[in-house]
Amino acid sequence: MKHFSTKLLFIFTILTSHFLWSQSSLKGSVHDANETPIQGALISLSPSNQSTITSADGDFIVQNLSSGSYTLKITHLGYKPQSINFEVSNEDTILSITLEEDLLNLQTVVVTGTFDPRKTIESSTSVSALTSKDIQQNFPRGTAGLLQNIPGTFTDASAGEVFTRVYTRGISASAEDDMGWYYTSLQEDGLPVSLVQHSYNGPDLFHRTDLTTRKLEAIRGGSSSITAMNAPGGIYNFISQGPRQSLGGEVQLTQGFQGNNNNLLHRIDANFGAPLQNNWFFNLGGHYRKDDGARNNDFTFSKGGQLKFNLIKTNKNGYFKFYGKYLNDYTNRYTGVAATDWNNPKAAFGQDFNSTSLLMPSFDVNIPDGRNPNNTNTFNPTNGVNAKDLALGFDFSQDLGNAWTLSNNIKFSSKNANWQTSISNAFVSLNDPTAYLLSDLTVFSRMDATLPFGQIVFKDAQSGSEVARVDNSGLFSGSPFQYLTGGSLPNDAIMGTSAWYKDIDANEWMQQLTINKKTEHHNLTLGFAGGLSNTSYFGQGSFVYATYEPNPRMLQVTLENPGQPVLGLSDENGASNYGGLFYVNAEADVTQLAAFANDKWHIAENIYLDLGLRYESIQHKGHKDRFAPLGLSGGVDGDPNTAYDSGLVGPTGEIDNFNYTYNYLSYSFGINFKLNENSAVFARLSKGNKAPELNYYFDNFQNVPINAEGEVQKINQLELGFKLSSNTVSFTGTAFWSRLKDIGTSNFEFDDTSGSIFYTPIQFNSSRTIGFEWESVLKATNQLSFEFNGVIQDPKATNWKIYDAAGTVETNDDTVLDFSGNRLAFNPKLMFNLGTLYQTNKLSVFFKWQFMGKREGNVSNGFQLDAYSTFNTGIGYKISKSISANVVVSNLFNSEGLANFFGANSFGASGSGATPEFIQANPDASFVVVPILPRSSLIKLNYIF
């Protein structure tokens, strides 16, 4: 027995030894042309289905390989994928792999604007991508500021992180001022950040970029008509970090300097991930920052951050992903700056295009809520906009066999945006009765009211000291005001501004389900997209007394006529006309449903035809309060000597309902002809539609029935493009024609006589734009490359009319102005980015010139915004394999370009009112422009593990 056991042990040892001897390892390193190690490259081996990622040194190892033939695939964002066939024998295999840069990511698979992942060069769309390295070359100041690097994309980030504008190809008419993302879809991981928009409530409120973002994919027009919810103008999809094969991550510390280098930014970003057991992976990251802002204001401009995660399970058939985000962020927005000289604008009234913010200082006031005067809403303008977003989602994709694939992405989110900010900062002369009447707009309709004329006393709200005493009693007879003491107000004016309170809530559900079938010549996708949003919106405005100077001070204002009681025109903080400027209280349920089909037809060896249809149905159902001054005796507090709370506006009890459904069919047909592995031409014809957003109901129909549905805008686009990807040159160019029809336009107006704010009747207009957009990279050497992208276009308002209310609610003096054939407003004929990058294995240096061409400031073409240039630069150094430092400077030379135009410098004025006739009649008038943000610089320290 013992002898038998010994023989058995000997045989087992021989067999085991033979098995072990037949197992080998694959070892290797991955680097670029500069011999710089590439960390995080995905190493996939078939047929063993083993995978790993490269370390910080670019190394990898795959163990326990049996003898045989294998294919190794190496992929990394920003580099062309590479496949290597090799044989495994009894010895270890060692490989040294050099990845070639994918200069425009044309060999990279894109998932945005298409129903099946495909390489950019094989798609029949105009698509661009930014990698995490590209993102890190920008000052972290909001989504729109980053998108200016996308060719053909017009962005206006002059207000800061929010209240931005983004559009392409002249599809812009309704994307102005308070609806800046009207035609585009801002997405995270393939679903919209927000399902609905309305005035001053855009998706940028709920989006921040940080280290959790792996990549940005951008689609301009074209296939967005059939691949996005109600967004035919383009898609900007921020894709999060994915699975890591080993524990690792990155921490980034940022110190920024802005304006006159006295405004600081402190920020920390982090992201890390690791594998768990049984093919589970997790990723967690986010950021927190405290930002003084780019201009001179005496409070923190932005603070807060977000936390994001994903948990992924992979199997042989696909993946399952759980993901989420929690955002809690405070940020503010800059309004305009006063200027004079219509032909060569210069800052006026002691203001400065680079440093002036005209934002109110900090103060706390409790303003009665018009819905229930027993309740109050706390207001402090330094809070700005507090945006909160809790989102949870589930995404999966599974191979069902027989070339069928099922995918579904579903997300629920709960959002809140609380606005405590201002809506204007206009010049209001002390010779203008508006300066006093705005304290109580009901003064003429109440028998017990005291007209605010006589001795007006202005006190500094903070110190309580008297600043000026004014006699305005002669204004009705045409006499100017008189100062009664030695004090005076800056510029003999007050600032026409408001304590603007808004509270917006939305609970949203959205999803996209697709089923895909591949055959020899067809790749057919059928799908369903749906979304539900329950949103409520309450807003009210109160007048605020403040000095009109670069750093405004709050003013406590009283009427102190001899022998009469002192009448408070403001409270002790300077707040006046509590809740009397405007009132909105509305709720809406939005249901979006869409069915779509797309076929990628391989009609010849190198020719692919895309055929896509989308049928969409959008229902808006809700209600809105009618409102009027509550007429409370003695105001909210019952004291007739406090005039500032006498004009509170609230509901009348009448409600206007709306329930409208918009149904439409969109299509997009594209063809891609691949000339060879590195070049292709494509063409695409698209017809898209844009249903109205909720602002149509919320802003219009003031105290009248909502008895008409909005108009669906029609977008037709034709594009023809060429793509080239070689070792030294990559280029994409797209010629396009776009037409936008049935554009509903309305102006925000102020009635001098009644003090009410209203929107003018809607006019329906059309525009067309012809242009060429391009994106190119030239790699002169392994270390030196040049980038050039931009657009040249001819934007025209083919049919355009503006309703002129003549400054009053009365309609007997109204006219309709015709500006058909003029240049389309806010669309430059030329804009581009030209830059260079020098990079070794330790050092990187970049320099970029951004040019914004001349634009019309309004559709009447009465005022032009001149062209301007900004220059950005940066330098980075890799201290060790784990630590690197970077310096980034935006607007290096402190250029003073003008990004926006708000019209004459008067309370309630609009840009469209500055017609050539108005400018000729008022050559010395001041007006409001929005300058671009001044120079900013930052130092970043990164630790990678």
Automatic annotation (TrEMBL):
Localization per record: Cell outer membrane
InterPro entries per the UniProt record, alphabetical: Beta-barrel_TonB, Beta-barrel_TonB_sf, CarboxyPept-like_regulatory, Plug_dom, Plug_dom_sf, TonB-dep_rcpt-like
Domain TonB-dependent receptor-like beta-barrel stretches: 332-892
Database matches in Pfam families: CarbopepD_reg_2 (PF13715), Plug (PF07715), TonB_dep_Rec_b-barrel (PF00593)
Gene Ontology MF term list: siderophore uptake transmembrane transporter activity
Membrane topology recorded in Swiss-Prot or TrEMBL: Multi-pass membrane protein
Gene3D superfamilies for the chain: Carboxypeptidase-like, regulatory domain, TonB-dependent receptor, beta-barrel domain, TonB-dependent receptor, plug domain
GO cellular component terms given for this protein: cell outer membrane
Every TonB-dependent receptor plug domain range: 121-235
SUPFAM superfamilies found in the cross-reference section: Carboxypeptidase regulatory domain-like, Porins
Chief location of this protein within or outside the cell: membrane
Keyword list, A-Z: Cell outer membrane, Ion transport, Iron, Iron transport, Membrane, Receptor, Signal, TonB box, Transmembrane, Transmembrane beta strand, Transport
Family indicated by similarity: Belongs to the TonB-dependent receptor family.
Name of the featured protein: TonB-dependent receptor
Organism of derivation: Seonamhaeicola marinus
